[in-house]
TrEMBL record:
Gene3D superfamilies: Beta-galactosidase, domain 2, Beta-galactosidase, domain 3, Galactose-binding domain-like, Glycosidases. One of its GO terms (biological process) is carbohydrate metabolic process. GO terms for molecular function: beta-galactosidase activity. PROSITE patterns: TAT. This is beta-galactosidase. Residues 405-576 form the Beta-galactosidase domain. Keywords: Glycoprotein, Glycosidase, Hydrolase, Signal. Belongs to the glycosyl hydrolase 35 family. It comes from Streptomyces shenzhenensis. InterPro entries: Betagal_dom2 (IPR018954), Betagal_dom2_sf (IPR037110), BetaGal_dom3 (IPR025972), BetaGal_dom3_sf (IPR036833), BetaGal_jelly_roll_dom (IPR025300), Galactose-bd-like_sf (IPR008979), GH (IPR017853), Gly_Hdrlase_35_cat (IPR031330). SUPFAM superfamilies: (Trans)glycosidases, Beta-galactosidase LacA, domain 3, Galactose-binding domain-like, Glycosyl hydrolase domain. Residues 30-52, 277-302 are annotated as: Disordered.
């Protein structure tokens, strides 16, 4: 087929920029650019939107950016799970500071598209703003716009309206592809302005599709992937493209599909989510090889772990973690877990790493897929409340190591070595001669063993299910490391000296040997270190963590450039912050976070966070003599370590006081259950055909909510009945996501409630739950039964009212259109009578322009705006919490509260709901009109809900509304409702309030 002018220009531009990725026409065939030998050398400078042209290439070892080797250390973060754009900068700065050089982001189609052809990138959905913020932070971006993303979001990211379109999703079906092309056009119009290749931004890689393992060997699958590839290229995207294989299956390696003659633009990546009990698999140089061997499936492209589990999702009921929630995910997938698996990947030659998730976030509103509840904390290194957790330590160490020690960008397998009780990987850099050893303990007991190295045997102790990284022959600037039992974290030059940091577990003895042909002058700057010079080698021993940071200064000898050796345990290492500026590298020690360092003449201006009182020590380029911290000068003195250190401690964060919630008002709703309710404006449910995968009952109308445009939240049905004499029972078929329920009234009398079961280990992944609620009149309480019988014998029509909490759409991971399974009622049958029924249906009103289509459902209070700030509630009944009552239906509770968090304090606040777990009710939580989650009291496991700053007004008044849905079988709450402080720091970022329009 002929190329359009745009397609030709895009492809020609790619070639001109020097792509060096595995060719798609010839499996793994590198371009001439990639074939050149690229020696080990400094990594590229941190990226920015510098308006300069850049090249992105590769060989089998790593990416090549402007001819320099780049190891990608990326963390996954989803802007749509943090609906406060000001806070994007906060978490991106935390990622950069902790060693990440890249952020990977899904772009959720459903979040941006409320209707076909409509794509909203404003407000909290401002993709352009996010990409600018990432560039300003100095992070590369891996952009993942789908069209299908999975990610435990509703329908896997497909918009609700796509569930009622013809055509089969994730195939070459032309109707589906037409919608996809509109979506990609909208995304790519923004993305192409932010590509690193032309200096417009920092997009480094771009993903098409996600874990697409169906149809791999079928023409429709190959045609689909080819279409996506060509479409993205035609839209002007010229950075490397990739797909993430769902496991090491060898799916979609270079050459798997037609790219229209475009060669060198495709990378193979794969995912891995190992269990903590699993032995880390070898998926690369030490693996089995072949198409299912991980990186060996594409031997001429660099090893790429496109998703590696930085935690795990948890289902309703908490079956994944025994009801303990994400705290247990973080405990079981702790720092040792991350270190053991990541070091194994590094040993296997993987140089593109993406940790999913690094920042978990919140699946607020109706965003979550059926498989998860509101919180998407994920047990990630940065928790849902934006707190950096203890599992950041290996991420921090490895990230800075891979950025600042270039030897790790090009490692080859070396001669095998063995050590009793350990699995040992041995690699070497062919350019520098440095040797790298990963010593892994897969057992349940600590192991002390001697690892044979190029510098002799090194005795190391490796805790159970942990790993250690050892190096020999590593350059430390102008001197050479012979060996060290502690792991290197970085080497850099600051001012007149080289600096190298070595880290390990608190209490371990770090034993370092430095090649010194001539005896140097050694200055032990802290009392914990010890040293001895012997036969051309300096031996240094330091107990890690005893006194915080230990400094040993090595001068003279064979080099006139001083070498400062730093030793730190994990807790200390995460308070060391290297930061590159145009004038040189700055190294800061002490605060909880360094956000930014700017050199202004002889002044270094630092911004960051403190939690506890702390000292501040700064190394930097020559000539700096003044330090500012968060805009204020601090008094310093010069140290023997060549640093400036503060004469007084930086203050910690002052106490933050939260108010007690009170002044509650209550109002019951569901007037839809009353027979006289006016539903004349509701849609008539009389369709006879549907594109749903759920069959339409023979002879019956389509009752599926999506077919009438109601894609999210609760939906009401009113069936107008005649000829009901003798009615004995009503059977209502319905289909929902996990934890859906149905409740019904007949002529205003409650018929009862039916709910889907709580998932267990075997059913936690089920995305669609179907059942039939059989509501027998004979099972009603006697008085209610008698009232209803009298009503049914009265002349005239009768009304069956049904509320369905539909929950969310299934994902479509297997490309079987499972996202099209019905939500809501699927059919109705009657026993004892054969009434004629005319159905009407009502769900959410038009999407909120600020909060988007997933904020609201179809409850009466939502349609009337009771969740919004400014809604009149002065006529509501005053109540005190806890409040209990019994009854089927919905009641609303509203309160306002005022926060007075001092300026310059970043306080993360949560809402806690707690009650007797035997009480069956659920709560939708609205803060200032934003639907921040759903609480199910008798299911859990979530009790604490994060209230993100920007939606939460930390220096003003907030409106809290709770929509409480009770099944009537027990007393219902809400019980205890309180605010809680989830974390605080002195510092933070300026926060702009997110639009929260009221009545």
């Amino acid at each position: 087929m002929a190329l359009s002018r745009r397609t030709f220009s895009a492809l020609a531009g790619s070639a001109a920029l020097g792509f060096a990725l595995g060719g798609s026409g010839d499996p793994g065939a590198p371009s001439a650019y990639a074939a050149r030998s690229v020696p080990t050398g400094p990594a590229p400078a941190p990226p920015s939107a510098d308006r300069r042209r850049h090249t992105i290439g590769y060989d089998r070892h790593s990416l090549l950016v402007d001819g320099r080797r780049l190891v990608v250390w990326s963390g996954e973060m989803h802007p749509f799970r943090l609906p406060s754009p000001s806070l994007w900068r906060d978490v991106l700065q935390k990622m950069r500071a902790h060693g990440y050089n890249t952020v990977s982001v899904h772009v959720a189609w459903n979040y941006h598209s409320a209707a076909p052809g409509h794509h909203d990138f404003s407000g909290v959905r401002d993709l352009d703003l996010f990409l600018r913020t990432a560039a300003e932070t100095g992070l590369y971006v891996i952009l993942r716009p789908g069209p299908y993303i999975g990610a435990e979001v509703d329908a896997g990211g497909f918009p609700g309206w796509l569930t009622v379109t013809e055509g089969t999703a994730r195939t070459a079906d032309p109707t589906y592809l037409g919608h996809v092309d509109e979506w990609l056009t909208a995304v790519n119009r923004i993305a192409r302005r932010h590509q690193f290749t032309d200096g417009g931004g920092t997009i480094l890689l771009y993903q098409i599709e996600n874990e697409y393992d169906p149809h791999v060997d079928r023409p429709t699958g190959r045609a689909y992937m080819s279409h996506l590839y060509r479409k993205v290229r035609a839209d002007g995207i010229d950075v490397p493209l990739f797909h993430n294989d769902k496991g090491a299956n060898g799916h979609w390696v270079p050459g798997s599909f037609d790219t229209g003659g475009d060669k060198g633009g495709w990378l193979y990546g794969f995912d891995g989510y190992p269990e903590p009990s699993q032995t880390p698999p070898d998926r690369g140089r030490f693996g089995t090889g072949g198409p299912t061997g991980g990186a060996s499936a594409s031997p001429r492209t660099p090893g790429f772990a496109a998703e590696f589990g930085g935690g795990r999702s948890d289902p309703w009921g908490g079956a994944a973690f025994d009801g303990k929630g994400y705290a247990e995910a973080r405990r079981t997938r702790d720092a040792a877990y991350e270190r053991r698996f990541h070091l194994t990947d590094l040993a296997n030659g993987l140089t593109l790493h993406n940790v999913y998730m690094t920042v978990g976030g919140t699946s607020w509103g109706w965003l979550p897929a059926p498989a998860v509840y509101t919180s998407y904390d994920y047990g990630a290194a940065v928790d849902e409340a934006r707190n950096v957790t203890s599992k950041i330590a290996p991420m921090h160490q490895l990230g800075h190591l891979l950025q600042r020690v270039p030897d790790f960008a090009r490692l080859d397998r070396a001669a095998d070595v063995t050590a009793h009780g350990l699995t040992v990987y041995h690699l070497t850099n062919p350019d520098t001669g440095a040797h790298v050893y990963v010593a892994r303990n897969d057992g349940t007991e600590e192991v002390t063993s001697t690892v044979p190295t190029a510098a002799g045997g090194l005795e190391v102790t490796v805790p159970a299910r942990d790993a250690r990284l050892l190096t020999t022959g590593l350059s430390l600037g102008r001197r050479t490391l012979r060996s060290c039992t502690a792991q290197p974290m970085f080497r850099l030059t600051a001012g007149r000296q080289d600096i190298a940091l070595f880290t390990g577990v608190r209490g371990e003895m770090a034993r370092l040997v430095l090649d010194c042909p001539s005896e140097p002058l050694v200055n032990r700057l802290d009392p914990d270190g010890a040293w001895v010079y012997n036969q051309g080698a300096l031996h240094v021993s330091v107990p890690l963590g005893e006194g915080g940071l230990t400094r040993v200064l090595v001068e003279h000898g064979e080099s006139e450039t001083p070498l400062l050796l730093l030793f730190a345990d994990e807790a200390t290492a995460v308070r060391l912050w290297p930061y590159d500026t145009p004038s040189g590298t700055v190294l800061v020690y002490g605060p909880a976070l360094l956000r930014e360092a700017v050199l202004d003449g002889s002044t270094v201006r630092l911004t960051g966070d403190t939690i506890h009182e702390t000292g501040l020590e700064v190394w930097g380029p020559r000539g700096i003599d003044t330090v500012e911290w968060n805009g204020r000068p601090v008094a310093t003195r010069v140290t023997a370590a060549g640093s400036l250190t503060t004469k007084a401690l930086l203050p910690g964060v002052p106490a933050v006081t939260l108010p007690r919630l009170g002044g509650w008002r209550r109002k019951a709703e569901n007037p839809e259950s009353a027979p006289g309710f006016d539903d004349s404006t509701w849609q008539v449910a009389d369709k006879r055909t549907s594109y749903s995968t759920t069959p339409v009952p023979e002879g019956g109308p389509v009752l599926f909510a999506d077919d009438y445009g109601f894609h999210y939240g609760d939906v009401w049905y009113r069936g107008h009945l005649t000829d009901v004499a003798g009615l004995k029972s009503v059977s209502l078929g319905y289909s929902t996501g996990t934890q859906g329920l149905l409740m019904a009234w007949l002529d205003g009398e409650p018929l009862g409630v039916h709910r889907m079961p709580v998932p267990d280990d075997g059913t936690a992944g089920r995305g669609t739950w179907t059942d039939t609620a059989v509501l027998a009149l004979s099972e009603l309480p006697q008085k209610r039964r008698e009232r209803l019988r009298r009503k049914l014998t009265a002349p005239g029509g009768h009304v069956l009212s049904v509320l369905v909490r539909r929950m969310q759409h299934d994902q479509d991971g297997r490309a079987q259109d499972t996202h099209k399974a019905a939500r809501g009622l699927t059919g109705a049958a009657f026993k004892g009578a054969t009434p004629k029924v005319r159905w009407r249906i009502q769900g959410a009103l038009a999407p909120d322009p600020a909060r988007g289509p997933m904020n609201n459902g179809g409850l009466y209070g939502e349609r009337e705006g009771w969740h919004l700030p400014g809604s009149a509630d002065d006529g509501w009944q005053p109540v005190a919490l806890p409040h209990t009552g019994r009854g089927q239906g919905v009641a609303w509770y509203r309160s306002t509260f005022r926060l007075t968090v001092p300026g310059g304090i970043d306080a993360s606040v949560g809402l806690v709901l707690d009650d007797d777990p035997a009480r069956a009710y659920r709560v939708q939580i609205f803060l200032n009109g934003w639907n921040l989650g759903q609480y199910i009291n008798d299911v859990g496991p979530q009790h604490t809900f994060v209230l993100p700053n920007g939606i939460l007004n930390t220096r003003g008044t907030n409106t809290l509304a709770l929509a409480v849905l009770s099944d009537g079988s027990t007393e219902s709450g809400p019980g205890e409702v309180r605010l809680t402080l989830l974390g605080s720091a002195a510092g933070g970022v300026p926060v702009t309030q997110v639009a929260s329009p009221g009545r």
